[in-house]
Amino acid sequence: MKEENNKPDIILIGGGGHCLSVIDVVEQEDKYNIKGILDDTKEGDVLGYPILGNRDLVKELSTEGVFFLITVGQIKSSSVREDIALLLESCKAKLATVVSPLAYVSKYATIGEGTVIMHNAIINAKAKVGKHCIINTKANIEHNVQIGDFCHISTCATVNGDTVVGKGTFIGSNATISNGITIAEQSIINAGDFIKR
């Protein structure tokens, strides 16, 4: 885990299972040096990267010019991720946007700050993904889709064209959303569900 001086440092917030997957994406993208992880309950390291302390360190670390990425997972609620984002905003922290080199993101798509696009995800033309989202492994976001802030589109889920997904929504693994659907904020779509008009 040799540091390259020409790359900016990144701090990951949250040291659980989602963090493991994000570390792999950050390493593959090779855009940032992982300086360490902040976690409110753990000590030690995650995949060899040190846990530096809890989120109380955000204010201090943000003055060092490092980037931050929220790596707390999300299923039932986006509230923890939203609380961390408010803390980052209050500290005027810099936000990283991380995109796996194995993902496809159309040049006509828009990705918000603080979002992570995992391996083999597809973001098609004119799709708009909000801030602090998780677009997980093999998720498919089709043309003209709008994904609100703090959404988690889980593994192998498909969101078809012209769909609007409200803020804080979780769409489970292998779920399929038909085209032109509007999904309310803070919705939970279970794994394998098929949502149609």
From TrEMBL:
Positions annotated to bind acetyl-CoA: H152
GO MF terms, alphabetically ordered: acyltransferase activity
Key words of the record: Acyltransferase, Transferase
InterPro entries: AcTrfase_PglD-like, PglD_N, Trans_hexapeptide_repeat, Trimer_LpxA-like_sf
The keyword Transferase appears for this protein: yes
Domain PglD N-terminal, residue spans: 9-76
Family affiliation: Belongs to the transferase hexapeptide repeat family.
Protein name: UDP-3-O-[3-hydroxymyristoyl] glucosamine N-acyltransferase
Phylogenetic lineage: Bacteria, Pseudomonadati, Bacteroidota, Flavobacteriia, Flavobacteriales
